[in-house]
Design a protein that fits this description.
This protein has no helices and eleven strands. It is mostly beta strands. It has one domain. The strands form three sheets. It has a four-stranded antiparallel beta sheet with strand order 4-5-6-7, with no helix packed on it. β6 and β7 form a beta hairpin. The chain starts with a strand and ends in a 6-residue tail after the last strand.
Length: 121
């Protein structure tokens, strides 16, 4: 089971509860919100870094990893399958698209821009 709580400093912390004791997922310096868990125990979600940027993360084997972006400053992880393929959204480096999110698929450690639906803003 995934969840989140607010610690004594007011920071949101994500956790994974596998039975005996909840496991804190860590942080990049700010709030951490888990969004999905696969059957292998991999967690994906969003964590705010020290610069105030939201970043997609994966958690597995005891460590949290920043998944990067599509060249911009923002990303968020929303789902993960049993193979460890991750889907989410991220900003790009294109100034014309700076405030627009693009869907991504991360497979084999490579994040690919899979775009938007037609007529999406």
């Amino acid at each position: 089971m995934l969840g989140a709580y607010t610690d004594s400093s007011g920071t949101m912390r994500g956790f994974l509860n596998t039975g005996a004791m909840p496991l804190d997922l860590g942080s990049f310096g700010g709030d951490t919100i888990p969004n999905a868990l696969n059957d292998g125990g991999m967690v994906v979600g969003t964590s705010t870094n020290r610069a105030g940027q939201e970043r997609a993360f994966s958690y597995g084997n005891g460590s949290m990893r920043d998944l990067g972006t599509l060249g911009g400053t923002y990303s968020s992880g929303y789902g993960v399958n049993h193979r460890g393929d991750i889907v989410g959204s991220a900003s790009t480096a294109n100034p014309a698209e700076q405030d627009l999110e693009r869907a991504f698929l991360m497979s084999g450690g490579v994040m690919r821009n899979i775009g938007t639906l037609p007529n999406a803003t």
